[in-house]
Write the structure tokens for this entry.
Amino acid sequence: MTLAKKIGYNTLIHTIGKFIGSALGLVIIGFLTRYLGTAGYGFYTTIFAYLFFFSTIGDLGLYLVTINELGRTSVDQKTFFSNIFTIRFSSGIVLMLLAGVLIWFFPYPYLVKIGTLIISLSVFLMMVDQIVVALFQAKMKTKYVALAEIIGKMIVLGLTILVIQMDLGFLPVLWTVVAGLVVHFLINIFYARKILPFKFAFNPEIWQKIFKKSWPVATYMVFSMIYFKADTIILSLYHPQSVVGLYGAPYKMLEVLIVFPAIFMGLVSPHLSSAFSKNNLINFKKYFQTAFDFLSIVIWPLILGTIVLAEPLMNFIAGKNFLLSAPILQILIVATGIIFIAHLSTFAVVACGKQKEMMKFYILAALMALFLYFTLIPNYSYYAAALITVSIELFILIASWLMVKKTTKIKISFKNNLKSLLGSLVMAAVLYLTDLSLIISVVGGAIIYIILIYFLGIFKKDILKDFLIKKGR
């Protein structure tokens, strides 16, 4: 099978798994928002936002290093992966224990503190699982990831419905998340060890080499975490949990959506890295351009369609108590589109080995975000949080894009991007001028958009054909 077909097949399988998992996740959100209400969902949001800080620190940049290193032919993969798996496992335990201790010093309700201890178990499993997923992506075996994703989410959904029917309360809701992650994790570990029989390993020389490669990535991830999640934490310190809940519902939708570009770039990144390491800038540009065109086709209808349908979307997903979240969703969907493209440029920065040079921009972004969050959130609440998120994500996109352009000297065509924008504007105008149900609007809008971009000459069944370059060619 050609490289292009492998990338296309694995992107499709992983995307289908994530799509089904994300759809189940949205259904779970719908049950939780209706059962917990704005205040209860605020508790839920605060717990995950708090633990996200620690999980990001515990990442240590290992995910990107794993993907890129497993793409290099000179690496002893079993030894390398055994050591990097052990690092992630150890860092996960340390960081979750630290999070469990420090939560008692925050002015949060007792339920939030106990809930943090419960969810720390699932976050630990997610941290370790991420490294395993990197192995599947590097080996083009994402069908196992899809299987684990779907089964895990189905268990969470089933247990959530049971908890709600029995009216067991807030903490049992959290245990459903843990149960789903346990099953998800065990499935991935089982199949991963069939592909590569790794084990716990401690080789000081290898650990040193890993940290040498990962610390720049880890540093910028910590600073990116500050501007990505500090808004929710700061919002929870200045405003009631009901306000956090109103912000958390559309923000959770953003988090579900940005999984897709991470999957896509996880598969493309090793080939960007391989092309750059061989000084083959022709192939590098080909991969980068095709990825940009593909993401452009996705983001414009996503942004404009959501802006038009924000209110019925929030009502459908979260319920009428969250209709006030519609304007927040309209702002955050812009940030989502920016993050889609920023995944391409930031992964390309790592593929080019320029993560150290990029670090100053992440530090600057984090400092600007913290200043703006503490200055504006107390008075302007979630509107400030959402608008600052858009601004900071745009800053990172521009900085990383310019870094790639400076390093590779490649020139990217925006022709298909502009065509996608034109098709999306027409689609959005039709949706705005019609008064149809949400389902009909979504399906009809998708059909209109596909027809438009087909006649504009950018929708092709072989959109990934630019990846048709065999290994070693």
